[in-house]
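Service request form, structural biology core

Requester: graduate student, group of Dr. S.
Request type: structure prediction, single chain
Budget code: on file
Notes: please return the result as structure tokens.

Sequence provided:
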Amino acid sequence: MEKPGLRKGPAGELSAHRTPEERPMLLKPSLPRTHRYQAWEAFTKGGGLAPGAFSPRVATSWKRCAEANLNPLEMNISRVLSEQEWKALVARNEPLLDVSKSSLHLLEKSLTRFSHAILLCDPDGNILYQSGTGRVLEDFNEAGLVPGGNCSETVLGSTAPGVVLIERKPVVMVQEEHYSRIYHWCCCAAAPIVDIDGKFRGCLDVTTSYEQAREMRLLLGLTMTTVRSIQAQLHVQQLLRRADETREILNCAFGLSQQAVLVLNSRGLIVHANPQAAHLLRRSLAELAGTDYSALMESPAVEETLREARRRSGPLKLFQPGMPDRRIFVDIYPLHSQRGGPPGAVLLLHEEKRSWSVPGTPKGRARPTYAFDDIRGSSPLMRRAKELARRFASTDLPILLEGETGTGKELFAQAIHNLSQRSEGPFMAVNCAAIPKDLVESELFGYQPGAFTGARKEGQAGKFESADGGTLFLDEVNSMEPATQAKLLRVLENGEVMRLGDTASRRVDVRVIAASSSPLLEQVRSAGFREDLYFRLNIVRIRLPALRERTQDIEEIALHVLGKAAARYGKQVRRIHPEVLDRFRRHTWPGNVRELENCLNFAVCLCDGETIELVHLPDSLLDPAGPDAIGPCRKGQALEMSIVQEALESSGGRIGEAARRLGLSRSTLYRRRKHFGLCRRRADRPRDVRGPENE
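Core staff response, request fulfilled:
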């Protein structure tokens, strides 16, 4: 019986049914197609490979397949991962998938004029993404070349993506160059994807049928262009992540310094400042970012360092708002770049004859720097929140801040502290959700020597004691365990704290500001939070609105963030296109202001001009729906199977049509079809057959 996808040749032998006579590509075969099929057939019968019939790359791949005992006459198709394996695969490759979406969408648009399939694979050949049109896509679905399938050489035999996974160089493979007979109708071009460190991250493949064999030079060009686009976005993502890591290291290192530190770029703009510098200059960190140093101070030594890249020291005149000019001292260290010339300088500011330190701030602890003027937004909801916070800042009443992640709860807490009578006292911030449950009590209330295994021999004061005379900010208080809630209630009621392992209480004077990312009252109703503690904390409740609830503030916030990001990355970006602002207003912003900041940092790094446009936005704003978004959950496996079966039957078994009717992606429908045992055999599908003599 004749196998699907194959036909009888002039001598009555089986041959591939799809192929033109020649291949207009990189390595032009020395034999016409009929002879090449005969050479392939001789090889499969153990007669060896005819010299010059195929390129050395193809010959080497065939030898690897033969050594792996892969039979070229069999149905070499891929198995598909289970749902659990697929989810793990996506999680491992999420960065590559995220940066590839827009580039793959453009490639898809470029290929609409003929039948094709696109595959994005990880370094092991696992298929992360598949799309396409027409007969080629249907054949790929039948061969298991869907998301969760595998296109490595050991599974399919010699194919362009399979060879790329081994040689990690661009490859074109047409017709009989494929080792397995069932893929002789294919023409494919594939190229490797590498990250900024040169690490192999996967490959991109474009496959079409024999009708487009003469278009392979174009397909290879499109493939290479798409890979370069994916790599560029991957590199930007890696640079942003490294910049975040570097910034965190700088924040930690400079925060521990007792001296005021400023970092300037080559144009004299402040790109980093530590809290001590903000305190000395009497400005917030937000105000300092992107500011020209000459607006804050006057020093010939700074100008000389930026111009000549030589270390300097000398006096500096400091301009302070509302106060006479002040004379301090500065040590300036030039920063050198590999490209030559100074990229900037580090300034250490201090008073003459003694080191400068922040009054009222314990050694090694950063002072809160945000004020209400740093909180952007003038919408009614935000004005209401800021007005309440200002009114109650001067009291010692506990305050409860409720708002989603990224709405600025800690900014409000710092601003309240800095406006209160405790502003010269310590400000301690504790994220209750970030501390292991068994360590929360020791972190908050402290412990005596030997209180538990691993405790310091001298014991340790808790956050309440460390915040004595100041403010304690308890973030994510809703995650606190019931036993810890009871101890917190006692501290709030009597102002005394008892360390673990101790028998005596210690008096503390602390103002508590609590924050929750979900409504505490709902947890009280579900018995997840103590009612008496809730009413103790809820004397002053301030709800911080989500960004989607105050869209009129988005432009002001975005322009402010844009200025800081442009200064940080040395860009000349100054404007945001109206279409981008409109997209911002329509986005739901689940991450609120923090998500907006991340989005603009990404866009600034991509933008080479002065205006942020839609093309610079991350994919999450361009296509917010996930790749496998599924509608409402259906009741019962039997009902779901009948719905899938009906869709497949009514669409004549066409995966794409059935998927559209169900509102699923092709890959999801493929897995559900397999799960319910609704797959059709390849032999059931009629195929037209043609051969070399008909070409």
